[in-house]
Amino acid sequence: MAFSMHSHSGQFCPGHAKDCLEDIILTAIAKGMQTFALTEHMPRNSEEDLYPEEIAAGDTIDPTYSNHNAYITEALRLRSKYTSQLHILIGFEGEWIRPSYGPLITSLSSNPAIDFVLGSVHHVHGHPIDYDTSFYAQAVAASGGSDEKCFEAYFDSQFEMLLALRPKVVAHFDLIRLMCATPNISLRSLPGVWEKVVRNLRVVVEQGGLLEINSAGLRKGLQEPYPGRAVCEAFMGMGGRFTLSDDSHGIEQVGTNYRRTFEYLEGLEVEELWTFERSKEGLGVKSVSLAYLKATFRE
User: Fold this and answer.
1) How many CA atoms lie within 13 A of 209 on its CB side?
2) Of 85, 99, 93, which Cα lies nearest the Cα of 114?
3) pLDDT in tens, 275-289
4) Which residues form the PHP domain (predicted)?
5) Least confident of 48-52, 63-67, 154-158, 265-269
6) What are the residues facing 139 on neighbouring strands?
7) What phi and psi, each to the nearest 5 degrees, are found at residue 135?
8) Which of 24, 264, 282, 283 is 20 to 30 A distant from 90 in Cα terms?
9) Distance CA 44, CA 8 (A)
10) Strand, helix or coil at 214?
11) Domain range holding 257?
12) Which element (helix H / strand E) includes 271?
């Protein structure tokens, strides 16, 4: 069964993504998806944390979280409407910008409609690290002036997130590579960084979390999906479990680069991935063979 555990829509992420949520769901069905997770970005609580494109689209800080609440309402409607065609999971991307976001993420995740939270880090010292090279340079400067120190700060922030949130899914584990001068570098070649990588992976395994193989890395020009091969090999050696995501931001990106991602997984000798399944007993983890996933996915 083809699936994705990470997606966004322009309807509820204005300026950041495209297309309405229902059209994205219809595209997922057309591509053979049998499980599809809706994971819009969480609301922010500070104007300084909005991206330029969000500000340009008129997004503002709303203490009532009306957009997020409207998303939950629409997600529930669509899950009911398409229940015979698609197993829809409802979640959100919990973005750890600073520790003060912890209580907000915990509060939002307490809604009974929420199946799971994607644990992610997009900032270092308050600066976006995957938006453009200018913002990334600010993160590097705030970290002490080198990519390596910025990487270390990123994985320290991720460690804080893991301990505070215990997310069921960890998103784009090594996103920090994207804007650096050598984005395809093996993190194993940076001893101080690698120590923190291994520490964080052990926490994910101990917490029973899933590590996302995210095909968006290929779409953004990397040679491999997130995370890179060295990270995946270390995680596999610990007995860690992978899930799969397209991290789509509109209908054009649903399932994008899945075939290349399947080849990457085969090269790692991954034979099964994991997703979630709702039942009367609650949310359970379900194994899906890579062979079956490949057979059911449609371009």
Assistant:
1) 28
2) 93
3) 999 988 899 999 999
4) 5-216
5) 48-52
6) none
7) -65, -40
8) 264
9) 16
10) strand
11) 2-296
12) none
- Measured between alpha carbons, how far is 260 from 148 in angstroms, rounded to an integer? 29
Per the structure, the count of domains in the chain is 1
Q: Give the tens place of pLDDT for each residue, 26-74.
A: 999 999 999 999 999 999 998 899 888 888 888 888 889 999 999 999 9
Paired residues of 40 in beta bridges: 92
Amino acid at 299: E
Q: How confident is the model at residue 208 (pLDDT cuts 50, 70, 90)?
A: very high
pLDDT at 57: 81
pTM of the shown model: 0.97
| Residues facing 278 on adjacent strands | 283
Determine if residue 126 is left, alpha or beta; phi over 0 gives left, psi from -120 to 50 gives alpha, anything else beta. left
Strand ranges for the chain from DSSP E: 2-4, 33-41, 87-95, 116-120, 123-124, 127-128, 169-170, 210-214, 241-245, 272-279, 282-289
Cα 103 to its chain centre, rounded Å, is 20
**DSSP 3-state of 279:** strand
Residue 104 has phi, psi (to 5 degrees) of -65, -45
